[in-house]
Amino acid sequence: xxxxxxxxxxxxxxxxxxxxxxxxxxxxxxxxxxxxxxxxxxxxxxxxxxxxxxxxxxxxxxxxxxxxxxxxxxxxxxxxxxxxxxxxxxxxxxxxxxxxxxxxxxxxxxxxxxxxxxxxxxxxxxxxxxxxxxxxx
Length: 137
Hints:
With 137 residues, this protein is α+β, with helices and mostly antiparallel strands.
């Protein structure tokens, strides 16, 4: 799986209770974190979800910093910015077989239906969140 890196900007305007996390290359993709130490973890989860969604839909990914080293960002748009270089795994899907309890599978399917995504997307998102929570930094 190749790893790509995308610019994220964490911004905490004066008086704001949380950090807003924005991705200039992915308009509309955002996240938030109450504490600066949670910014990178939340940025990774948001970016992984956005990449997975685009890949599933067959849409091309925006240029990563490996492809375009100077992303277009307006520094005046932010008041208290922290720039982040967020890694994300990109790859095509691989079919696997898993065994789950019937009740758990029904719950996964219910979440998938309510969210408008596939069962695989729910499982992948849950796995990414758990992996991100377990990794240092």
